[in-house]
# Entry
Amino acid sequence: MYAIEYQKAKSVADAAAMLAKSGGRALAGGQSLVAAMKLRLAQPGTIVDLRGIAEMTGIRRDGDRLVIGAMTRHAEVASSAEVQRSIPALCALAEGIGDRQVRNMGTIGGSIANNDPAADWPAAVVALNATVVTNKRRVAADDFFKGMYETALAADEIITEVAFPVPKKAAYAKFPNPASRFALVGVFVAKLADDGVRAAVTGAAPSVFRSKEIEGALAKSFTADAAKAVKIGASGLNNDLHGSAEYRAHLVGVMASRAVAACA
# Structure
């Protein structure tokens, strides 16, 4: 590690002011940032701790939307009765993140802001057409994720909550890396009241993306067979020691099929 300045924010406004002044990084659960700092992949001069900001936590139903505070931990989502009633797919997704320690420390807002290529939450945000609410604005899911570890967030902008439309059907299936539990490929499918069928893929490419091929097939026939029959091209997909681009392309159809089957 190296010398840093640590600041603890008492409110969202307090945190935003600290970030604007210092040009530092916000600390949510710390499961990604602290690890990156240890490896010298991130070297912020100032850390602004968001833990303890009560207005950024909690889960509530707001009409036809499920709203989750950005500092709500994965374990809290997984065990939430409200989430289970409204969007049970999110409970299953949260329960499959990392191990127990990670789930009890990591937060939904931290995961989305970090936008790891293999993270689970971005797939849910995109597939459910969620709205990412910050201290400055509301950002549609399709406009939020820009590329590998890149989002639409400004340097002093903080995610405060995420609003998920309650779908007719939704499920998430992933092929996890056995060591990290990150998705080698994960697919979240959702059938929404206003937006039809959406399918988001994580782990396969440098950033989460929608599969128009799967969406088109499921719009015609929302069945596991229809999803599995879709042929995904390998161009632009990740190719590394964990799996080739062709293997990941194959897994997209398989995971989409399993997600649709889980919707039943």
Summary: The CA atoms of residues 92 and 130 lie 17 Å apart.
